[in-house]
Amino acid sequence: MTIYADTNIWNELCDQGVDSAQIEATLVAKETRLVLSYHTVYELLKTFRGSRAHARLRAAKLFSHLDAHLVGKHIMCVHEILEVLGSEMHAVAGRIPAPDPFVSKHDLTEMISEVRRLADGDFSEQADAFVTERRGLSSAARSGQKDHTAARADMKEKLRAISADKLQAWLIDSTATATPTALSLLSGKIRYRFTEATLDDSLSYARAHLESRTLRAAKALVRADLYFNWRCAHRGSIPKDLYDDMYHVLGAIYCDAYVTKEPAQAEYAHLLLTPATSIHVYAPEVPIAEWLESLTPQRAAALS
Asked: pLDDT (tens digit, 9 = 90+) per residue, 41-52?
């Protein structure tokens, strides 16, 4: 079983002082792995730039705790969602039998080295530039999507006509086949990831993705864009952290479970993910290690 943990879950593991060796033994015995993402590392990096006193000490503590977990066998890392899309494209082209969303041992070793440096409080200019660039992409995506929706009055009215109770069915229908909207959105993602791809090539790959019954990331990316547009049309404004939160949700597309402390994410996570990924919201009344164990297949079966 693979459990994608939102950044707030990693914070909770640190704050509750969860022993990495103990939780490793528990999860590995139940054939369960916690999944880390590069996006989580980015969000933890932002702690170094916090305005509160001792922000850098807090960040170093978080990365020190993360380092202790990363050396265990209970941790996996997932690729960025556009890299997962690239892996799906290789599968479509027949270069690999199936997409591989998870990071290789070599790349994970490189991440461990970087995390150890950060655990020592070494927030370099390179790391600072990475945070700035990533924040800029998030802000641009949020404002760009809003402006795009506002500029298309016809699209805005169509989206407003879709009620909240019909939203899930609409998202599923919109990505069940190669609809013009889905093709346009997905080909744009493909050309962004593969800048050398022609429009015809990107549309051909997009059609193959949308017609597949097994590939998940491509359709999830389209559903995310459609949901973002729908939310802009219905609410006018977009929460500052929605883009980053959705990025987390998308990262879990090939995982068995997605866990977070944010109840609001449960409002839309199921709209982006497939039924193959269960969604769980953590409440602090239960120790985090015990709660994570309760999600494992053997424990869940025993409690049922």
From this structure: 888 888 877 667
